[in-house]
Amino acid sequence: MKHLTKEQRYVIQVLLKRKEKKSVIAAEIEVSPSTITRELNRNGTKRSYNAEKAQIYANERKERFSYNRRFTEDVKKTVIQYMTKEQWSPEQIVGYCKKEGIKMVSTERIYQFIRKDKEQGGLLYKHLRHKLKHRKRSVTNNSTRIKGRVSIEDRPEKANNREEFGHFEMDLVVGKDNKGAILTLTERVSKHFMCRYLPHGKIAKYVSQAVIEELLPYKEHVRSITTDNGTEFADHKTIAKKLDTTVYFAHPYCSWEKGQIEYSNKLLRQYIPKKSIINHDNTLELKEIQRKINRRPRKNLGFEKPFELFYNFINQKIAFAS
Questions:
Q1: How far apart are CA 165 and CA 180, in angstroms?
Q2: Which member of 46, 108, 117, 198 lies 3.0 to 4.6 Å from 181 by CB, making a disulfide possible if both were Cys?
Q3: Tens digit of pLDDT for each residue in 222-241?
Q4: Which superfamily does 148-314 belong to?
């Protein structure tokens, strides 16, 4: 079970102030309604919910309960022994230790240890049946190959709370066999969606060029862009300079920190399903698809249409208030 992040807690706080239902809040941060109920019971009060305090309470609780699950030398020795002598998988090690009452960390924590060992020249990963080849999370960490990254932890609170227009999220949608790509962007307050075919694929300099061309007409309104750690965004400094903004990077493997663009990608997938070919001929209707997505009334916008909200903000016809 994944724990709520600080950003998600700020979203909960803002939506509670708007008196949104728990089901609406849950859908916004992509968790179950029961998760919202537990969060309010554990970290809220009868009268209010404060994201900052809730995060402190959660961290304190995590510290108390994780004391016996630290990656100690004894745990390390146990993992190495079972892997090198018996070729057990991390899942088998965790399952067996839990059954026998032996102190052990999580499966993912063991994989983190294996990845770090490989990065340092170790051979522990070779004792895994799949040699990490089938792990979705690569042995190497993309974030280490992107210089000058600015962490999402530094993103302004107004962006986290959706209290200010002009904060975007971006991603790529890729085609069959990882060939062909579409740049996707969304503004966090209006939920306005933009997309553009990338004829050169995921090459960083062409991705940055596409981002700049897409957002340049709105340059004065672009306050930040949040993305993941894919190397296709390695040219983020060019984007930041040309648009006079800041590009923030989510934590590795934390796609929910940019959940809005992930959801927007799903809307795009209604028209361009997974395993579809993405090339020039198959993306001729892309702008029409973008138009349709932006003209859909959204429940979490009070059934307003994203494109109307977006251009009202651009034309300064409305002022956003949380």
A1: 31
A2: 198
A3: 999 999 999 999 999 999 99
A4: Ribonuclease H-like superfamily/Ribonuclease H (3.30.420.10)
